[in-house]
Design goal:
This protein is of the alpha/beta class and 353 residues long. The protein is 35% helix and 21% strand. The longest helix is centred in the middle third of the chain and has 16 residues, at 117-132.
């Protein structure tokens, strides 16, 4: 039996310390081979041509040519899956959002001294494996452009205070959310989102989405009240669960152990929605690697919720939707361009008994 081919990675970072840490961490995974390192974009360009890596890890702050400019050139002339490794300060997070819009598959925080080599190895390997399986040509909103026209709105008076929309995503999800959410009208039931995302980056992502959507989008804080016309995004490194309140639901943030190696985890949000909203919920599972969200969607479906999953054709990585579909817990499998309409149609259907 032949040995599976290892994923070939080129590490691009101007910091020798970061290059060593990333190389050592990825070297812990038998399925990944670091075939080279580069200190700037010009060296990286030559090594891409000579080494033919499967995945690039890319720092955004580099001399001679910054990582964002290099990424844009690369995606035009030599498309390759890119994982951005950035210091996710507010300024760095804003650049990371630009990088995702320019074609990067994923973003993660730069290694820090608090992580053990094992923790760093798992985190980096997860993102590299996801990137290696990613589809590079997917439906994206044009950066800074006009989002697609919104489907016809449903009158908000149709919804009870118990109605709820929950959305989960991972690899490719930031751009999928940037495409989907601006198409939804204002005054829908409250929306809660879990996107696998590093700390700090979640706030910048929420602020960016807030500028695109006709309703308020912000990072969730503990005990926030969910209300119509509000979308709450789970903060990086915190699980988001929902608890009942007199007027609907409140957000509960915890740092309980990761689920499927993820915090926030989609399953935590979905299971809480199954427990407290049940058939009043509509759940959407978007692109992402792994199986997070499938069991939670099963609990929602058993409770009577309407369930939607993204079609393989538009997923960057098909893992999470595929896991739920294989379990038979998805009502409708929908390409991303049609997801907003499908979500509104699910809301318009009678609540299951």
């Amino acid at each position: 039996m032949s040995t599976p081919r290892r994923i070939r990675v080129l590490v691009v970072d101007d910091s020798a310390l970061a290059r060593r840490a990333i190389r050592a961490a990825l070297g812990q995974d038998a399925g990944i081979e670091v075939v080279g390192v580069a200190a700037d974009a010009y060296v990286a360009r030559e090594k891409i041509l000579s080494l033919e890596p499967d995945v690039l890890t890319l720092d955004l702050e580099m001399p001679r040519m910054d990582g964002l400019t290099f990424l844009k050139i690369l995606q035009m002339h030599h498309p390759i899956p890119v994982v951005v490794i950035s210091s996710l300060t507010p300024q760095g997070s804003a650049k990371a959002m630009e990088a995702l819009a320019a074609g990067a598959v994923d973003v993660l925080a730069k290694p820090n001294g608090d992580e053990t080599l094992g923790e760093l190895a798992h985190r980096l390997a997860y993102h590299v494996r996801a990137a290696a399986s990613a589809r590079l040509r997917v439906c994206r909103a044009e950066p800074g452009g006009t989002p697609p026209p919104a489907p016809q709105a449903i009158a908000s008076g149709e919804f009870s205070s118990r109605r709820l929309i929950v959305i989960g995503a991972s690899t490719g999800g930031v751009e999928a959310l940037r495409f989907l959410l601006p198409q939804l009208p204002d005054r829908l039931p409250p929306i809660a989102v879990v996107q696998h995302i590093p700390p700090n980056f979640s706030r910048v992502m929420a602020e960016h989405l807030n500028g695109l959507c006709p309703f308020e989008v912000r990072e969730a804080a503990n005990d926030d009240e969910l209300r119509p016309g509000l979308c709450l995004v789970a903060p990086g490194d915190f699980h988001l669960a929902l608890v009942p309140s007199s007027r609907g639901y409140r957000a509960r943030l915890t740092q309980s152990p990761p689920v499927h190696h993820c915090r926030p985890a989609v399953d935590v949000l979905f299971r809480s929605a199954a427990d407290h909203a049940g058939a009043q919920a509509v759940a959407v599972l978007l692109t992402g690697m792994g199986v997070d969200g499938a069991r939670g969607m099963q609990a929602l479906r058993v409770a009577g919720a309407r369930t939607l999953a993204e079609h393989e054709d538009s997923c960057v990585v098909y893992g999470m939707p595929q896991a739920a579909i294989k379990m038979g817990v998805v009502d409708h499998v929908v390409p991303l361009p049609e997801m907003a309409r499908a979500l509104l149609q699910a809301l318009a259907q009678p609540v299951r008994a």
